[in-house]
Design goal:
- With about 160 residues, the chain is an alpha+beta fold.
- The chain has two domains: about 80 residues, 2-Layer Sandwich (GMP Synthetase, Chain A, domain 3), CATH 3.30.300.180; about 35 residues.
- About 45% of the residues lie in helices and about 10% in strands.
- It has a three-stranded mixed sheet, covered by helices on one side.
- The chain is elongated.
- The mean pLDDT is about 75.
Length: about 160
Amino acid sequence: MALEFWDIAADRLRKSLGNNNYKSWIEPLQFVGESAGTAEFFVPTSFFGNYVRQHFEDQILYQMRESGFEVTRVTFSVGRLDQEPVARPSSPAVVAPVKPREIQGAKLDKRFVFDNFVVGNPMSWLMRRRNVLRKRGQSLLIPSFYTVALAWEKPI
């Protein structure tokens, strides 16, 4: 009986929310049941439940009341109707220690060694380069608004 009422409410939600919102947010809801004025739904994730609560809870409640439910609240739980409860292990699993050779990644590219790095703050290098070019009567064009503003702070 309650499932039939939910089907009616779901059809009304499809009409009021539009097909895209219905397919994305309402259709994945699994109606569990209604008791003591609370309608319970299973949702795929907690994010999904929070999103539906924030954006569609009022419309769900309204359409459920119009369809014959006497609900005042909606609750969302993560799970599925066809899913067996997952048993949690009583103690954490023992993890074997990892040998250092097993965690090494790709080999280091020879181009990226410390000998090739520019030492110092990149901005200080830019300022030195700007001053050298300014003495020569040249200008420095840098593809960044902040650095361009620094390079052009005094016209040459």
